[in-house]
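Our working data are protein records whose layout never changes between entries. The record below serves as our worked example for the rest of this section:
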Amino acid sequence: MEIYRAESVLIMEILRSFTPLVERMSVDEAYLDLSEMGDAVELAREIKRRIKDERGLTSSIGVSSNKFLAKLGSGFQKPDGLTVIRDEEKVEFLKPLPVGSINGVGPVTAQALQAKGIQTIGELQNTTLDLGTIVGSFAETLKQRALGIDDRPVDLSDERKSISAETTFLNDTDHRPTLRAALKEMARDVAQTLDTEGVAALTVQVKVRYSDFTTFTRQIRLQEPVTTAREIYHLACFLLAKNQLVKQPLRLLGIGLSTLVPPTRDQFLLSF
């Protein structure tokens, strides 16, 4: 992992040699705003060539007018792809793709949409159904993504602000073993991301959503940062119990980490 992180730093330097407008998303993913830099497709080819020549690695790039489409394009033709989604072509490009291709549409949401006859993004584009009754507050964003609309700017802050993981249950549940198992899995996921990014967290948050889409978050700010799955899991359990959040079956459960800082030698551990 140390080698992986070191390689990431060198590749990010290559990206910034093309433009300072770089949003680093993870150790191996970034957005670049090339809107004022000329021919973005030719620049993408040059970026791929530089990474290959200088680092001996392949890369996959999506070129489009916004972050959603660029991210989608980067997933095509891996491990050495270059996919261009032009603005005038985006609606047609999206039509045959499954609804699960949209960021934020996980297996449970996809299943709920499919149960209403919406299998593809094209069917989502044309639906007259009230999406709010299916996906709640995500409805407006979902419809925009289906049409290839995404107005999120490239974030130029080089520091990751938060790390999170969520689980949406197939059936609403307050079954403690099921909730504990989900928490442990999410704690492992976010702890692994902390390790990959080489950071620790001073703030731990839990998120719950009930069947009526009512959502609550509660958090704790620590004196010393946490890094391990065990610490994160115990703190999440503490927050759920202290705030009596499992007062009815949960539709969604999540863990979030923020106030990210360099890890310290002595870690803070709570046991409950």
About this structure: Residues 90-146 form a domain with the DNA polymerase; domain 1 fold (CATH 1.10.150.20). The longest helix spans residues 176-197. Residues 212 and 251 are 9 Å apart (CA to CA).
